[in-house]
């Protein structure tokens, strides 16, 4: 099987155990591949596995989030489509964000740049939608960053409470909140 077949499994493992906790033994057990087969598919070891997962998430961003924000419709509708896709990715708030996990521990130095790049692309896309709607550039950038803060924070809270309600509330309210022209 091609190595892409194993990416969803690897995504789940790294979400569940983090970089340091996803041992080769756990990866081997979950994928059904022996260690030699793992290295055949991913000669760079665990780092290459994470890079493959990040490439998968980048493609997901390009295929799901960016088109949602660049589609036809009013600003709230575009932002709602984005939130709907994020809701799918995070299974209604039941799944943690791999980006946050990779910024902890020994993985931070290795993957920080890629995570930073993906966050920036997402923030820039939201900013563009808000500018197109007539919002001031600086306020649009702040609101886009606030969106990332709200989503990531609600994911962390949902995970810590073992209750997806905070994430679901943010996903539901965020599109209209981002479009408010006057900050509270």
Describe the structure.
With 184 residues, the chain is mostly helical. Helix content is 77%, strand content 0%. It is elongated. 29% of the residues are buried. The model has no long low-confidence stretch (mean pLDDT 93).
Strand content: under 5%
Strand count, sense and barrel status of the largest sheet are:
none
Calculate the mean pLDDT score and round it: 93
Helix content: over 70%
Spans of 5+ residues with little confidence (pLDDT < 50)?
A: none
Describe the global form.
Answer: elongated
Q: So how many helices?
A: 9
Give the class from helix and strand content and strand pairing: mainly alpha
Feature tags:
9 helices; 184 residues; single chain; mainly alpha
Summary, kept brief:
Helices cover 77% and strands 0% of the residues. It has 184 residues and is mainly α.
Topology diagram in text:
Layout lengths: L6 H15 L2 H8 L3 H7 L3 H26 L4 H15 L8 H5 L4 H26 L4 H25 L3 H14 L6
């Amino acid at each position: 099987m091609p190595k892409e077949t194993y990416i969803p499994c690897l995504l789940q493992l790294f979400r569940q155990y983090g970089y340091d906790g996803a041992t080769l033994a756990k990866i081997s057990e979950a994928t059904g591949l022996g260690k030699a087969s793992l290295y055949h598919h991913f000669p760079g070891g665990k780092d290459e596995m994470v890079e493959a997962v990040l490439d998968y998430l980048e493609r997901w961003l390009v295929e799901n989030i960016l088109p949602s924000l660049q589609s036809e419709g009013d600003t709230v509708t575009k932002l709602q489509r984005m939130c709907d896709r994020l809701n799918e990715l995070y299974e209604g708030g039941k799944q943690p964000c791999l980006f946050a996990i990779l910024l902890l521990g020994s993985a931070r130095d290795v993957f920080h740049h890629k995570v930073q790049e993906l966050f920036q692309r997402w923030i820039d896309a939201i900013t563009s939608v808000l500018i197109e709607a007539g919002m001031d550039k600086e306020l649009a950038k702040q609101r886009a960053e606030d969106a990332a803060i709200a989503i990531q924070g609600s994911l962390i809270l949902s995970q810590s409470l073992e209750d997806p309600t905070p994430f679901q509330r943010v996903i539901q309210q965020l599109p209209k909140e981002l479009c408010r022209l006057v900050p509270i």
